[in-house]
Design goal:
The chain has 103 residues and is mainly alpha-helical. It is built from four helices and two strands, in the order αβαααβ. Helix content is 48%, strand content 4%. Helix 2 packs across helix 3. 17% of the residues are buried.
Length: 103
């Protein structure tokens, strides 16, 4: 009986401790405002959140989470740390690339 109680207690403790990681809030980087980005993404404060929104307005929607690394102050390490929180929904299309001189 003691082994069963001990095993159940251990399982409950593991479930409780891992619950926070499983319940991470997600944010759509193509539609969220700066306040939401700053609240949900770890390591992103007001200035970085505004930079994300500004970059999105200038260049159009992000096609992947990795494109966040194009934003000044956001690196791939920050993207990786938040990958489970990032969603990439539909947004305003990216600006077309400039025509090349050979056209």
């Amino acid at each position: 009986m003691n082994k069963t109680v001990s095993l159940l207690s251990s399982l409950l403790l593991c479930a409780f401790l891992s619950g926070g990681a499983l319940a991470a809030e997600k944010v759509d980087i193509n539609n969220a405002d700066a306040q939401t980005l700053g609240r949900v993404l770890d390591g992103v404060g007001p200035a970085k959140a505004e930079a994300i929104v500004s970059h999105r307005a200038k260049h159009g929607a992000f096609r992947s989470a990795d494109e966040l690394a194009e934003v000044k102050g956001i690196g791939l390490a920050l993207v990786e740390a938040n990958r489970d929180r990032i969603e990439v929904g539909a947004g305003k299309a990216r600006a077309p690339a400039a025509a090349s001189a050979s056209d």
